[in-house]
Design brief:
Elements lengths: L1 H5 L1 H22 L1 H23 L5 H11 L4 E4 L4 E3 H17 L7 E5 L4 H12 L3 E4 L6 H11 L3 E4 L3 H16 L4 E4 L2 H7 L9 H4 L7 E6 L9 E5 H15 L9 E4 L6 H12 L3 E4 L5 H11 L3 E5 L2 H6 L14 E5 L6 H8 L3 E6 L8 E5 L9 E2 L2 H6 L4 E4 L26 E6 L13 H5 L2 E3 L7 E11 L4 E7 L4 E3 L2 E3 L1 H8 L5 E9 L8 E8 L9 H11 L8 E4 L14 H6 L17 E4 L8 E2 L2 H8 L6
Parallel strand pairs: 1-10, 3-4, 3-5, 5-6, 9-10, 9-11, 11-12, 12-13, 24-25
Antiparallel strand pairs: 1-2, 7-8, 13-14, 15-20, 16-17, 17-19, 18-19, 19-20, 21-22, 23-24, 25-26, 26-27
Helix pairs in contact: 3-11, 5-6, 7-8
Length: 637
């Protein structure tokens, strides 16, 4: 202190220099960001522990405090009606009292076969109030898949949407559901809603909401089921605490009447939409709900609801870019978009056109063991699914580990001498394995021990260690930016090289006139591995004059020769599943055999095919004659 007082000029210069160095180190290594992430996660754990100690881990208690703070604030906007927090609490209590009168008991699950409606949200928090939770069933499911999801939920009561298609799907299964499962079906039609209004708005007994454990589901979600029956995944109460705190801190959510409003038209049976909105709602951030995604209505909903943040999934942004630019493109209050699946090839294009300055892109799965987040405001992390500074890279070096995979079998490659897995360089990437202390770190699939066991890998790098298989391949650059490569099963091997479909799709998507590219590998007679095929949806104005020769030159200039798709399939419609993510399975199953085309893809028989024939450099038509040459061995690729 004496030195400082005797040398004020030198001290000031030293402090200024130190501040400059500190700022430089923080900018280079992102230390402050990493510290804030760790602090936020610890805060979530602390809040959860405190609530658990009081027996009030149930999110219902968070909502009750929010209602006290903002009783007259608009909590939920829909085009039909807006609801204050007081409205939500009163209507939730009516549903809760109905559930109790219907025989629902603490700890039960009630199945929701519902479209995006306010009643989904209201009935959800009603179930929390009596110590229960919903099982969110994809309302597109029918027949065996629908019965399967309802069976594993263990629910004895299902709320069915009043949509006639939903009712018809459920009626087809009624005998099985009522007879085998003893399940009651209740349709949320106008008569039922009138019946609900006859129940009291008084709070249900507090003891029903008390004592909810961390492993209890805040909601039961399901995997997409593209390669088999959907699997149930509990989004646990404990996970809700850590997720909500981390996301709110990272996004800078502002609660209250003058705060943010989140909009989503993504399906509520999907975790991204469901958890985004419910976390906002219970913590005092207003939400807006659209019935379903529509390019025509999306921005109208955004403007009318005065949303400041919207939720996206998969190819949503690409759909919104498809129509011609409009003077209304920037007529909104949106400051940020939040979700997963924003492709690098359209990231900056979307930001520039629509004037959305911030992107909250996360990478996670329904199971939730491996997660990344990228709160992006500029070019540095644009296109990446997450970012770790120096501190996080050090902490997670032996936690998130990339390994080499055999693309044909899907097995982790192991050293022939040691028997241990082959660790890949982060910059090269591979399937991410997550080091876990015990099997309890993964809550497992709901009532499916065999599927749960398949996610574990033992003796990976040493005897007795335990890892969780993410099923996703990613790479991380030396500066900490994470990039998605492929999902397990999508990567294919061609010419003794591994081809990452996401990388190829990204390149093709940058070519003028290509609206979307879905890349996959197809099996061919007399050839090892799988040849690349790209299902292309062209923009309407490009279809008549599209230059396929120029496309071939462009792809070849950007990718190694083995990664250039041998085949093109020209499709009229997007090749997506219900969550707006690309679906490769039916395309891969059909391949390029003319006899199979149209057996898995509706109207697929009308698709045109092109190929790069042996010795050619450009794409030319492909049909039965060309397939015959591959089949008889006269054409070798």
């Amino acid at each position: 202190m004496e030195w400082l007082s005797n040398n004020p000029g030198t001290a000031a210069a030293a402090l200024a220099g130190g501040a400059t160095v500190a700022a430089y180190l923080n900018a280079k290594f992102h230390i402050r960001k990493d510290v804030s992430v760790v602090w936020s996660l610890k805060k979530g754990e602390r809040l959860y522990s405190q609530a658990l100690a009081k027996g009030q881990a149930n999110p219902w208690f968070i909502l009750l405090e929010t209602v006290k703070r903002h009783p007259d604030m608009i909590a939920l906007w829909t085009r039909e009606q807006s609801y204050t927090y007081r409205d939500l609490q009163e209507q939730a209590c009516q549903y809760a009292n109905f559930f109790l009168a219907s025989g629902v008991r603490k700890g039960d699950l009630v199945a929701f076969y519902l479209q995006n409606r306010a009643e989904f949200i209201i009935a959800w928090i009603a179930l929390w109030s009596i110590g229960c939770a919903p099982a969110a069933i994809n309302h597109h499911l029918t027949s065996d898949a629908l019965v399967h999801c309802l069976r594993i939920s263990g629910a004895k009561l299902t709320l069915v949407d009043e949509d006639q298609t939903c009712i018809a799907h459920m009626e087809e299964c009624r005998d099985t559901l009522a007879g085998e499962l003893g399940m009651d079906l209740i349709t949320l039609d106008q008569d039922f809603k009138a019946h609900i209004r006859t129940f009291p708005t008084t709070l249900p007994p507090k003891e029903l909401a008390l004592g909810m454990k961390g492993e209890f589901p805040s909601i039961l979600l399901y995997t997409s089921g593209t390669t088999g029956m959907p699997k149930g995944c509990a989004f646990t109460v404990a996970r809700l605490y850590t997720t909500s705190t981390a996301r709110r801190d990272a996004m800078g959510d502002k609660e209250g009447p003058d705060g943010d409003r989140w909009y989503s038209c993504m399906p509520l049976y999907h975790g991204t939409a469901a958890m985004s909105l419910i976390v906002c709602l219970i913590t005092g951030v207003s939400i807006a709900l659209g019935p379903k995604f529509s390019v025509r209505n999306f921005w109208k909903d955004i403007r009318d609801s005065e949303a400041t943040i919207f939720v996206y999934v998969g190819e949503t942004a690409r759909y919104l870019l498809a129509p011609p630019p409009s003077p209304l493109d920037r007529s909104h209050k949106v400051r940020c978009m939040y979700g997963n699946g924003l492709r690098p090839d359209i990231w900056e294009q979307f930001r520039e056109r629509f004037g959305v300055p911030e992107v909250g892109e996360f990478f996670n799965s329904t199971e939730g063991i491996f997660g990344l987040f990228n709160y992006n405001r500029g070019p540095f992390t644009a296109g990446s699914v997450g970012h770790h500074g120096l501190l996080m890279r050090g902490l997670l070096h032996n936690v998130f580990v990339p390994v080499a995979i055999d693309p044909e079998t899907g097995d982790v490659l192991r050293d022939s001498k040691t028997g241990f897995a082959v660790r890949a360089r982060y910059e090269e990437g591979g399937e991410i394995l997550v080091n876990i202390p015990s099997k309890e770190a993964f809550q497992g699939y709901w009532r499916n021990d065999s599927a749960t066991e398949k996610k574990f890998l033992r003796n990976v790098f040493k005897e007795g260690d335990l890892y969780y298989r993410s099923g996703d391949a990613l790479r991380r650059q030396s500066d900490g930016r994470w990039y998605f490569l492929d999902r397990l099963g999508d990567t294919f091997r061609w010419k003794s090289e591994n081809v990452a479909t996401a990388e190829v799709s990204e390149v093709i998507g940058k070519f003028p006139g290509v609206q979307e590219a879905n890349v996959y590998g197809v099996r061919l007679p007399n050839h090892e591995g799988r040849a690349g095929c790209a299902a292309l949806q062209l923009s309407p104005e490009a279809r008549q004059s599209f230059d396929y020769a120029a496309l071939a030159r462009f792809i070849r200039s950007k990718l190694p020769r083995y990664a250039v798709p041998v085949f093109l399939r020209l499709v009229d419609n997007p090749t997506h599943i219900h969550n707006h993510k690309q679906n490769k399975v039916p395309l891969r199953d059909e391949g390029v055999d003319p006899a199979l085309i149209g057996t898995k893809i509706p109207d697929g028989q009308n698709n045109r095919f092109l190929w790069i024939a042996p010795g050619d450099e450009a794409y030319t038509p492909f049909g039965k004659e060309e397939w015959g040459k591959i089949a008889d061995g006269s054409a070798r690729l």
